[in-house]
Each structure stands twice: as structure tokens, then as C-alpha cells.
Prior knowledge:
Rossmann fold
Amino acid sequence: MKSSVVFGLIATLVMTGSLVQAQSPATPTATDPAYLPYAHPGILADVDKARKIDLICMGHGSPTVIMTAGLGDWAATWLKVQPVIAAKTRACAWDRAGFGFSSPSPEPQDLTHTTGDLEAALRAAKIQGPYILVGHSMGGYESLAFADRHPREVVGMVLVDPSVPNQHQIMVDISPEAAKFEDDYLAFGAKGLRTCAMALRSGAAKVGDASLSECIDDRPSYPSELKANLAKVLGDPARYETQASLAEHFSEDSAFLVKPTRTYGDIPLIVLTAGQIQALPPEVHATPTMEAALKVFMGKAWPRAHDAIAALSTRGRNIMVPDSTHYIQQIKPQLTIDCIDEVIDATRRSGAGR
């Protein structure tokens, strides 16, 4: 889950390629019952002798839709989409190590390990393909990596404003200054998470202390049932070390994912690209040079990179969403649902989704 204000900002910096505040809908002050399906662990799948990855599955049918959240987020980012898709087929959202109800991990949280955890969790839970992969932001990385490893089982994809292969280098080529700024923010956020972990480990702080408020997600909109269950895992310092590792490996993951020979044949593949950028939040100060570089990135490089992902399939297409920023699945849930429905229907018509 988004573990802090700082980490949430970092997720936005890296995943949108810009220094903008994510336009997910304002967090309501009242308890939001839409979180209730995520208030308990789902299938806690054993990925090794010491760890479990949580899969929250709803509905029945084939193909199975696998939903992956972005950096700093957890399964509940799909709360406006997953229950609707589950009325049509089985839909499973999963949490990386150290997020939601998934165990932390001592392993580096690079793309090899996070994708490996997804594979192991699906095996342990006996959730077989065919799969449609749905990934938001950095969740596009695991979606592409999983599809590379399992081409016969992945029959369709919907990528929601996804991170792109070689994203860090693309930014470097446009503006080394802006790329360094993002690198510094990643390092800053990871350091903050590790500081929280050290405070918990030493006993200098405990859950509920103001000093940990930027590491622990405790939204007013979470139902009491969800808060009570999360309280059982939020005090584990390894959780925040695992989250820090995920941020620390982002840039190398973007390079690792470069694969010029990648192709997905003719599977239905839809990419959604956010068309809006919000103003910089007051705590972020960008130079005019950086702001100009970010406009080039978002206005040209980002859509072009999404076009390239869509072109991995002969049936792929990139849809610009002009009235949304990064969290399209929350700002435009019906559009996201419609795209997933379209891919489900296409796979069923072809026989690949059965």
C-alpha cells in the first residue's frame, strides 16, 4: 500500500515521469465501505518456507484477470474496478512483498524477484491461466515480465498509464538534471522508509507515533476492520525495508526490461495514457529547465513509449485519456472496466480465454 506521503510522491515522480501530485480522488474523511473486500487477507500463498504473498480473488470464470498495483500501492487501488470485473470472470489482485498482507522479503525487490513472487503465488494457489494481465504504473513492469516468461498463458493485457522499458534512460536523454532529481527523490524516500524500520527495530518508535506517520498508511477512509487487521502487520520493520528496496531498484528495473525482440503476437492489448498533469505540489521545487524537460517527457516521450508497448501486438492500441492524470483506474474506472471487458470478450471469442 502507499506507505507514506513521501513514498506516494516518489511513486508519482517515477511512475508518471514527472514531478506531479497523483490525481487519485481525494481521500474521503468518512469510512469507505468499498475497502471492505480488502479488509482481510485473501489467499495467503506460500512462496517459500518463510513467506506468503496475498492474492485477493473475486468471481469465477476464465480467463483469470491478474491485477498489479503501482509503486507504493496495494491491491485496494483496484477497488473501483475489480469487483465489477469479478461479475464477469475471476479477478485476482496481488500484493508485492511488504505491501498489504504479503510478508516482507529479505531478497532484493527487483523485477526478477517481484515477478518471481507472482509466479510462485499463482502456482501455490493453483490459479492457472489463461491470464489477462492488468497493470498500473510500475505494475506494467511485472505484467510485461510475466508475459515474457509465460507467452502461452497470457492471452491479453490492459496497461494503465504504465511505466515503460528504459524509462530512466529516456529521462536522462531529455534532461540529466530532471533525471537526477528523480533519483534523489527515490533515494530520499527509501532512506525515510529505512529510518522508520530502524526506529521500529530498536524500539525507539512504535506504530501510532507521529515519527512514523510518513511510513504508515492509516487513512480515515479505511474501515475499522481493515485498520485492525493492518495493525497486526504494520509494526514489522522488515516491511519498510522491503518497500525501500522496491524503490531502490526502479531505475535498474527499467533498464532490465529492455528487450528489442519482445513481441506478443496478436493478443488483445490496450494501453491507457493519462493526458493531464497536475501542478507541482508546494513541497516540490523544480527549476524552469526541469519543468520544460518534464513537459517534453509527458507530452512526447511518454505517449510515444506507450505507443511502442501497444505495438508489441498486432492488435494493440494506445488510448489517450485526456481528462485524467495517472490514477486512471480510480479517476476513470468505467473506462478501465470497459477496456478489460473488451479484452475478456476478445479472448473468449477467439477461444484463447477458455
